[in-house]
C-alpha cells in the first residue's frame, strides 16, 4: 500500500525536489534489494542511470555490481534467457491468461443460455420458429453434447453391468465346483 501524499509524477516539481524523491526511492529500493538477497540467497545489484547526468547510481558498489553483471553475461545464452523475462513478454503472458479465462467464461455463459433456451422450448414457453439461426445452431450443439454424454454414460453402465454379470457367473461356477450335485 502506498502512503498518503505519494507523488506519482515528478514532472511538475523543481530539480531539487526531484533529486530528493529519487534519492529516497533509491534508498528504499536498496533496502528491499538487500532483504531480497538475504531471504533468497541471491546476488542483487542495482544500476540506475539518470537522463542528463554523467554519474550513475550503483548498489552495493561499482565493483560488486560489475562482478554480478559479468557473471550473468558469462552464463550460456540459453540459461540467461530462461532466467530473464522481459516486461513485455511477462505482460503478454498475463493478457493471454486473462483472454483464456474470458473465453472460458463466455463459453460457459453461452452453454447456460442454450440450456435456458432448451428448457423454454421443452416447457412450451417458446416455439421453435421464434429462434434465430445462432440460437438454433447453439441448441443443436447442446443436443449433440448431451447425446454424447448419454452415449458415454450408456457405455459405462453397460460395461459395469457386464462386469457384474461376469462376476456373478464366476461366483456361480465356483459354488458349483465346491458343491457337486
UniProtKB/TrEMBL annotation:
Residue ranges that the Swiss-Prot or TrEMBL entry lists as coiled coil: 91-156
Main localization, broad class: nucleus
Keyword Endoplasmic reticulum applies: no
Top-level taxon of the source organism: Eukaryota
SUPFAM superfamilies noted in UniProt: SRF-like
Domain called MADS-box: residue spans: 2-50
InterPro entries: TF_MADSbox, TF_MADSbox_sf
Region named Disordered: 162-181
GO cellular component: nucleus
Keywords of this entry: Coiled coil, DNA-binding, Nucleus, Transcription, Transcription regulation
Molecular function GO terms recorded: DNA binding; protein dimerization activity
Subcellular location: Nucleus
Name this polypeptide is given: MADS-box domain-containing protein
Amino acid at each position: 500500500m502506498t502512503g498518503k501524499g505519494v507523488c506519482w509524477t515528478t514532472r511538475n516539481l523543481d530539480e531539487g525536489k526531484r533529486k530528493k524523491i529519487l534519492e529516497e526511492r533509491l534508498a528504499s529500493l536498496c533496502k528491499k534489494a538487500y532483504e531480497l538477497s538475504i531471504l533468497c540467497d541471491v546476488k542483487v545489484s542495482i544500476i540506475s542511470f539518470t537522463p542528463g547526468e554523467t554519474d550513475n547510481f550503483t548498489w552495493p558498489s561499482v565493483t560488486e555490481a560489475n562482478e554480478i553483471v559479468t557473471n550473468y553475461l558469462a552464463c550460456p545464452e540459453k540459461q540467461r534467457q530462461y532466467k530473464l523475462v522481459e516486461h513485455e513478454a511477462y505482460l503478454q503472458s498475463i493478457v493471454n491468461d486473462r483472454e483464456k479465462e474470458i473465453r472460458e467464461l463466455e463459453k460457459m455463459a453461452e452453454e447456460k443460455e442454450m440450456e435456458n433456451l432448451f428448457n423454454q422450448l421443452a416447457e412450451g414457453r417458446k416455439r421453435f420458429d421464434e429462434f434465430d439461426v445462432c440460437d438454433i445452431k447453439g441448441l443443436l450443439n447442446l443436443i449433440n453434447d448431451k447425446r454424447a454424454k448419454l452415449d458415454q454414460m450408456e457405455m459405462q453402465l453397460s460395461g459395469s453391468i457386464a462386469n457384474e454379470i461376469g462376476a456373478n457367473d464366476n461366483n456361480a461356477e465356483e459354488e458349483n465346483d465346491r458343491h457337486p450335485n
